[in-house]
Task: inverse folding
């Protein structure tokens, strides 16, 4: 029986291993993590992450060929294939701070593997890592082990949160990078054999190690770039009276471009896009490719610009001040169908409004109160560093209340900001909401999900990203505020 061990029971490791266990009943899969609370949750009825379909898969396999354990060394030592799915946060201090990835967790995982291994191992990079990590890991592993052979593979994960299980069951492609030596190719084949239990052969792509590592960064950079491109257009649409939905639709009909990822929004979020681009920028800079670095850096700048622009629009529309006003925030997760708030644009928008002394009433169907408070009081990038989770700025949180539904959040509010495209926000009773709000009542739709015409008929003043402006808003051009 082949034994697989995955180090790291997070958003990638947990769902990926659950699907491998489901599709390969003859493979024994163990997910290990040093966090006792996380492993306890994986072994309970309340899984530590929310993902449609995940519960069913875990229930079906757990205790049969899928196990969650904190006994890291035992399972690593027994495994044939070790997936490493640990964090690679952005460095917050030292050389490359704000850009370079922190490889501490990777390095200690590699050292631990080297320490406990008594048989040959295939070590698979599963988390997104900077190009050339495999080489570093290889050095650590082989430096001090005379008779054990290690093969390093890169197998980046392309799943999207919110659709992780579907993405894993039916991937566009599985990418496996390995050394071009006979032993390297044997390892590639071993991992290919795992995936070919359910993934068609022609969707399993094999490359060299560095191509696989870079492909993941490139794919995320291209996706983020599409969002920044359409968001840049949305600003121009507002300025000219064009409608970004119509522009996107027309552009997306071109088969060379395609219709996906063309929705304008308040900005992209999630744990990967920004981090991977920063990573890419850092690699470019290290290789002396300044122009290439600047090109990709602009994708992040436009994203920050879009969030700022949204806050400016809110403040300027509401008579240039939100001080003391109640603003309802609908949605906090970085996108619908996930409880994940990492790098969510809601953090920057809320901070911007709090900076103008607004009172926020926040509702999200999947994000817990303490998570929101933690996010709003943490420094940038701190979410990714479990070591210093101490809130740094608790003062801001005093002006925030977290409530249990959209009607409570909007009661007596001056304005509403929709920051996540949850389906339930599309079917709210906006007449009822309007009746319970202060007038004039504003809706700022950061996800373009409301029916603008209907809301205007009710009496709302509506701002919808990239759409022709409400006459009210036209007369109050967005001012540029000091940050
Ligand atoms: C390696 O194993 C030794 C002895 O079991 C232990 O003292 C040491 O801390 C381990 N090192 C790592 C990096 O796990
Ligand atoms: C390597 O050597 C150790 C100690 O002599 C032994 O226990 C282990 O089985 C050997 N591993 C392989 C893969 O030969
Ligand atoms: C923008 O275009 C979409 C798609 O044609 C349309 O449904 C919507 O009503 C338009 N919005 C405005 C504010 O004109
Ligand atoms: C993007 O826009 C299309 C067309 O308006 C819509 O069908 C789709 O649900 C939108 N996607 C998101 C994530 O809002
Ligand atoms: C596991 C292993 O091979 N450990 C060796 C690493 O190198 C030092 C120094 O040569 C040896 O003392 C260890 O036994």
Result:
């Amino acid at each position: 029986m082949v034994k697989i061990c995955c180090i790291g029971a997070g958003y990638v490791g947990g769902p990926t291993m659950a699907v491998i266990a489901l599709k390969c009943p003859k493979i024994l899969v163990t997910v290990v993590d040093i966090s006792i609370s996380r492993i306890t949750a994986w072994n309970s009825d309340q899984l530590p992450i929310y993902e449609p379909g995940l519960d069913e898969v875990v229930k079906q396999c757990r205790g049969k060929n899928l196990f969650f354990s904190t006994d890291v060394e035992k399972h690593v030592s027994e495994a044939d294939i070790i997936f490493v799915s640990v964090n690679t946060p952005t460095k917050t201090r030292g050389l490359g701070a704000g850009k370079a990835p922190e490889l501490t967790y990777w390095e200690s995982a590699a050292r631990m593997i080297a320490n406990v291994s008594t048989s040959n191992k295939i070590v698979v990079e599963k988390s997104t890592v900077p190009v050339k990590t495999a080489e570093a890991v290889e050095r650590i592993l082989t430096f001090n082990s005379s008779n054990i052979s290690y093969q390093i593979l890169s197998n980046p994960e392309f799943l999207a949160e919110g659709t992780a299980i579907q993405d894993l069951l039916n991937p566009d492609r599985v990418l496996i990078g390995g050394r071009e030596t006979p032993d390297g190719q044997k390892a590639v084949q071993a991992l290919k054999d795992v995936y070919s239990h359910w993934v068609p052969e022609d969707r399993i792509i094999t490359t060299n190690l560095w191509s696989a590592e870079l492909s993941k960064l490139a794919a995320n950079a291209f996706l983020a770039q599409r969002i920044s491109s359409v968001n840049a257009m949305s600003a121009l649409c507002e300025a000219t009276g064009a409608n970004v939905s119509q522009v996107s639709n027309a552009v997306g009909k071109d088969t060379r471009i395609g219709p996906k990822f063309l929705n304008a929004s308040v900005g992209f979020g999630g744990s990967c896009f920004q981090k991977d681009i920063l990573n890419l920028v850092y690699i470019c800079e290290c290789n002396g490719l300044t122009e290439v670095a600047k090109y990709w850096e602009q994708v992040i700048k436009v994203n920050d610009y879009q969030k700022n622009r949204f806050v400016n629009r809110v403040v300027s529309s509401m008579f240039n001040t939100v001080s003391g006003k109640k603003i309802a925030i609908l949605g906090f997760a970085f996108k619908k169908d996930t409880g994940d708030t990492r790098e969510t644009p809601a953090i920057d928008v809320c901070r911007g409004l709090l900076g103008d002394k607004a009172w926020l009433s926040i509702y999200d169907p999947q994000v817990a109160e303490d998570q929101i408070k933690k996010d709003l009081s943490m420094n940038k990038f701190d979410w990714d560093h479990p070591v210093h989770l101490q809130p740094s700025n608790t003062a801001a949180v005093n002006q925030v209340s977290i409530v249990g539904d959209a009607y409570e959040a909007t009661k007596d509010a001056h304005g509403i900001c929709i920051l996540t495209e949850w389906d339930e926000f599309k079917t709210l009773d906006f007449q009822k909401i309007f009746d319970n709000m202060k007038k004039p009542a504003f809706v700022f739709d950061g996800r373009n999900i409301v029916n603008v015409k209907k809301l205007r008929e009710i009496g709302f003043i509506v701002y919808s990203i990239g759409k022709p402006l409400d006459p009210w808003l036209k007369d109050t051009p967005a001012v540029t505020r000091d940050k």
Notes: The pocket of 2-acetamido-2-deoxy-beta-D-glucopyranose (ligand 3) is lined by residues 243, 245-246, 452, 467-468 (CB under 6 Å).
